[in-house]
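As a representative case, the lines below give one protein's residues and fold tokens.
***
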Amino acid sequence: MKTKTYLSLSFMMFLEFFIWGVWFVGAGNYLSTLGFQGEEIGRAMSTLAWGSIIAAFFVSLIADKYFAAQKLNGILHLIAGILMFIVAQITDPTLLFWVLLLYMICYMPTIALANTIALHHTPNAGKQFPRIRVLGTIGWVFGGILISFLDLEVGPIPMIMAAGASILLGVFSFFLPNTPPQKKDSKIKFKDIIGLDALKLMKDRSFAILIVATLLISIPFAMYFQYINMSMNEAGIKNVTGLMSMGQMSEVIFMLLMPLFFVRLGIKRMLLMGMFAWVIRYVLFAFGNDAELISFFYIGIILHGICYDFFYVTAQIYVDKKAPLNLRASLQGLLTFITYGVGWLIGTNLSGWELQRSQIMEGNQVVGHNWQSVMLVPAALALIIAILFIIFFKDEKEKIKADIETII
């Protein structure tokens, strides 16, 4: 790969996830300062799920067939930048939901488009793509640290920064290497879009258990971004967005350590470590404070690497090796649909209801939340999922161990 191509693709990835990370982590807390109620915050955050669901259809129907990926990426980011700038001006819950939904419909497809562009121009994807993709995580981390450093935790400025970065990436996308449509001469069938053939694998009990577990564990995953920033701010902790970027730092570290754990633990134990990490982190968040137990918050954030890598990345590897070659792409799409679509939709709405239920009122004013009660709900949910997984999932360690070792 030419150096120019590598640098342009890396910069694309950096901006792609900087846009997301710079505003999304603190969004729930910001909306609460505007006077949004718990259910209203939940609905606003659920737009990511709706955007993900619509994006799955959009990319399959349009992006793959009719447009060069870099041009479509540019158009979507330009529109998204304008919409995010409008979002930053809105204080009405209903209007914000609809404009934010339009934004997510534009932004979420760009994640898949960025991956498509990068993979198309990496001759050795196994070695070169991770080096490009890691710039996305760095972009997310940089966004969080920048917001904390500039003391912009509360307010619309992070959204305005995201809008500016989106417009910048929109313009820059037109200068990226050409990535023509991949299925220009093929017919796209509806059953391929919804992964109907892939669902046939649900006859396999272990595979079905994994899919159900992915759906259920995505509920506390969605709650994380809605709860933690707000709870730590209410606890009096400063620079929360920057502190939460430690989660993405740990994600990089544990990603590098995954090969060692795979060889020693196998699929089932890796997945269970990810599930139990969710239990532990929510218990830590439930009992943490800004005094002698402030370390509970830090440990809970750092556990993000285990929570995400050991469950979601392991699940992706399991599916890749379990599925027939012709269904691998469909099944990876199914996992994304379940995680950021259905699971996130349930999680954000459930967490909105929980926030509403746990409000501490003084007259008509919300002065805080009963965070211990709130945090123990996803902790209990993750524990139940892990126990059921232990009982019903059959570990196929020996069967796929060799395949796993070749890709890590």
